[in-house]
Specification:
- This protein is of the alpha+beta class.
- It has 2 domains: about 10-245, Aminohydrolase, N-terminal nucleophile (Ntn) domain (Glutamine Phosphoribosylpyrophosphate, subunit 1, domain 1, 4-Layer Sandwich), CATH 3.60.20.10; about 265-445, Rossmann fold (3-Layer(aba) Sandwich).
- It is built from 19 helices and 23 strands.
C-alpha cells in the first residue's frame, strides 16, 4: 500500500452510423489510464454480434493495431480500465464482462464496489449460478441477465437490479441495440455524458475522456439515474434519483481524477488549488519554497504557494514513462523505487526551507523516501503537508483501503508520523476543509454542492457496511488457485 489504489474507468459510445469504434474507445481508455493500470478491455457491437478483447496490462500493452482491427466496425462500443479493489488481479477479472443469453448478448463495465456482493454471490451460487471470476461485476451481470429474462427491455432489467445491489456502481452496459449508463443512488463514483459532432453519444467516468474523443460535455449523470442511448435518441429513468443522500467520493478531487476533468460541476484542478490554500491557512510555516510531489500534489502546492505567499518551485521531476504502478522485482528493488520514479532538482531545494506537498500518507514508507530525497538534495528543513485528512478507516466503495492495519495514522500521532518520515513538521488537511474543496469561492457562483463521502477519514459511512471485512469471498479463495483455474481461454475475439 505505497499509494491508494485507483478504482476503474468506464467508457461507452453509441453511434448513429456504423464505424470503427474500437479506436475511439482506445483513445478514451488512454485518457482514463490513470484510473486503472492492471487490465483493459474493449467490446464492439456489430449489429448484435459482439467482438471483444481484454487482458492484463496497460492500454497500449493490451491493444495494438491488429487487435483493434480485429474488433471491427459497429455502432456501439464499451471499454474499461481496471484496478482491482474487489477481485484478484488476473485475466478472468478483466472487463468488459460479456454475457450471452436467450434474449441476446450484454457487455458490462463497472467502476465501484458493492457492499452486499458476498451475500448476493452466495445466494446466486446456491441457486446454481457458476462464476468464472472473483469480481463483484459478475454478480451484477447475473442479476441483470436474470431480470432481463422476465422483462421486455434491458433498461427495465437494469432498473429492477438497482433495487438489489448496494454500494458504489457506475456502469456502462451494451445490449444488441442499446447503450445504457447507470450511476448508483449515492453517486459515489463519477459518470458523465457528452455528444460528438456526428451525433454519437458518449458515457464515461471523467470528462477528460470526452475531450479525448472530440465529444462535448453535456452533463453529469444524477445519482440514481439510468440513461439510455439508441436509435430513438437519449432518455432517462429517474426512479432511483433522490432515494439516497448524494455521497461523491471526495478523494476523486484530491487524487483519483485527472486535474483537467470536471466532476459534478466542479473543476478538479480548482479543487486541488483550494485544498492547498486551506492547508496554508490551517498549517502555516516559515519557508523559502513550496514544491509538490508529482502529479496530484502539484496543484495543491500551487494553491499553498498562492495563499501563503511562499514562492512555488519545481523541486521533483517524475519519470514520465513510469505510471502510478511499477513492477518491482523484489523487496530490495522497492527500496530504490522512489529514486526511479522521482528525481530532485537540487537548484530549487539546496539550502532552503522546503514545504513539501503530497496528496496522502498511507503507510508512510514512500513519504519517508521522498523526504530523504529532498534532504539529500540539500534542503535545510522539510515541512510535509498533506492535501487530504489522515486515513483512519477502510473503504467499501471502490478504493483499496481494506483495513486499518496498514494505515499509519491509525497507530501513530501526527508528531510521531512526522518523526517517522523524517519531516521537521507535518500537517494534514482537515475533514471540514476537504468537504469544501469543490465549492466555489463566491457563494452565488458555485456549482450545486451535492455532498461527499469522506468515510475513510471520518468513519461516517453512507451505507451499511459488511460485517466481516471487505470481501469475504476473496478471503476464501487462494490467489494461486484462482490463477490456475480461472484463466480465460481464447477470448481475444468472440461472437455471440
Amino acid at each position: 500500500m505505497q499509494k491508494i489504489g485507483e478504482e476503474c474507468g468506464v467508457f461507452g459510445i453509441w453511434s448513429p452510423v456504423r464505424q470503427n469504434l474500437a479506436y475511439t474507445a482506445y483513445y478514451a481508455l488512454f485518457a482514463l489510464q490513470h484510473r486503472g493500470q492492471e487490465a483493459a478491455g474493449i467490446a464492439v457491437n456489430d449489429d448484435g454480434v459482439f467482438h471483444y478483447h481484454r487482458d492484463l496490462g496497460l492500454v497500449h500493452e493490451v491493444f495494438n493495431k491488429a487487435e483493434l482491427d480485429k474488433l471491427g466496425e459497429g455502432r456501439i462500443a464499451v471499454g474499461h480500465v481496471r484496478y482491482s479493489t474487489s477481485g484478484i488481479s488476473n485475466r478472468s477479472n478483466a472487463q468488459p464482462v460479456v454475457v450471452r443469453h436467450i434474449k441476446g448478448s450484454m457487455a458490462l463495465c463497472h467502476n465501484g464496489n458493492l457492499v452486499n456482493s458476498y451475500e448476493l454471490r452466495t445466494q446466486l451460487e446456491n441457486e446454481g449460478c457458476i462464476f468464472h471470476s472473483t469480481s463483484d461485476t459478475e454478480v451484477i451481470s447475473y442479476l441483470i441477465t436474470r431480470a432481463r429474462l422476465h422483462t421486455n427491455s434491458i433498461e427495465k432489467a437494469v432498473d429492477e437490479t438497482i433495487n438489489k445491489i448496494h454500494g458504489a456502481f457506475s456502469l456502462v452496459i451494451m445490449s444488441p441495440s442499446k447503450l445504457i449508463a447507470v450511476r448508483d443512488p449515492h453517486g459515489f463514483r463519477p459518470l458523465c455524458y457528452g455528444k460528438c459532432p456526428d451525433g454519437s453519444i458518449v458515457f464515461t467516468s471523467e470528462s477528460c475522456a470526452l475531450d479525448a474523443v472530440g465529444a462535448k460535455m453535456v452533463r453529469d449523470l444524477e445519482p440514481g439515474e439510468i440513461m439510455i442511448a439508441d436509435q430513438n435518441g437519449v432518455r432517462s429513468i429517474k426512479d432511483h434519483c433522490g432515494t439516497a443522500k448524494p455521497s461523491l467520493c471526495v478523494f476523486e478531487y484530491i487524487y483519483f481524477a485527472r486535474p483537467d476533468s470536471v466532476i459534478d460541476g466542479a473543476s478538479v484542478h480548482e479543487a486541488r488549488l483550494r485544498a492547498g490554500a486551506y492547508l496554508a491557512l490551517e498549517h502555516p510555516v516559515q519557508a523559502d519554497v513550496v514544491i509538490g510531489v508529482p502529479d496530484s500534489g502539484l496543484d495543491a502546492a500551487l494553491g499553498y504557494s498562492k495563499q501563503s505567499g511562499i514562492p512555488y518551485g519545481i523541486g521533483l521531476l517524475k519519470n514520465k514513462y513510469i505510471g502510478r504502478t511499477f513492477i518491482s522485482p523484489g523487496q530490495a528493488a522497492r527500496e530504490d523505487l522512489v529514486k526511479i520514479k522521482l528525481n530532485p532538482i537540487a537548484e530549487t531545494i539546496r539550502g532552503k526551507r522546503v514545504v513539501l506537498i503530497d496528496d496522502s500518507i498511507v503507510r508512510g514508507t514512500t513519504s519517508q523516501r521522498i523526504v530523504n530525497l529532498v534532504r539529500e538534495a540539500g534542503a535545510k528543513e522539510v515541512h510535509f503537508r498533506v492535501s487530504a485528512p489522515p486515513f483512519l478507516n477502510p473503504c467499501y466503495y471502490g478504493t483499496d483501503i481494506d483495513s486499518r492495519e496498514n494505515l499509519i495514522a491509525c497507530h501513530h500521532t501526527i508528531p510521531e508520523i512526522a518523526k517517522m518520515i523524517g519531516a521537521d513538521s507535518l500537517g494534514y488537511l482537515s475533514v471540514e476543509s476537504a468537504r469544501k474543496i469543490a465549492k466555489g469561492v463566491v457563494e452565488d457562483a458555485e456549482p450545486e454542492f451535492k455532498g461527499y463521502c469522506a468515510a475513510c477519514f471520518d468513519g461516517r459511512y453512507p451505507t451499511e457496511v459488511p460485517d466481516n471485512g471487505k470481501d469475504r469471498f476473496e478471503q476464501k479463495i487462494p490467489e494461486e488457485w484462482m490463477n490456475k483455474h480461472t484463466k480465460d481461454e481464447g477470448d481475444t475475439k468472440k461472437k455471440s
